[in-house]
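Quick one, T. Sequence first:
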Amino acid sequence: MNKVTRRTDATPAQVWSVLSDGWLYGSWVVGSSRIRDVDPDWPQAGTRIHHSVGLWPVLLDDETVSLQSKAGLLELSAAAWPFGKARIVLTIEKDDEGTLVTMEEFVETAPLRWIPPVVQQTAMAPRLDECLRRLTMLAERHTA
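Structure tokens:
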């Protein structure tokens, strides 16, 4: 498991507003290069964001599925062929100084699952931190 937390001045509603707009996914998820389509009921459980990963002209089409969506929690299954699948859990908590946003990533399939957890953590933490940096910057400027 890889886990990072970031504090923001944005309200929980502002953070949720960014997460619930599937068309913004490519703006805060490192590695997602374009959004091809978003199911109309995103982020309800079972809905999908159809995205591409990579750099043009080498793009791979994939998708992210919402597994659970409720106040303060969004759980996703993200595919990035040929690297496999990961489960991502985003939690949003109000605190005295704003909002705490936590992002956890669990590698679920090979080949990334074959990498020792300490190596995964070292390699993935900067990416997750950048995802949260982008997410919170968008939320701070986004009207809920």
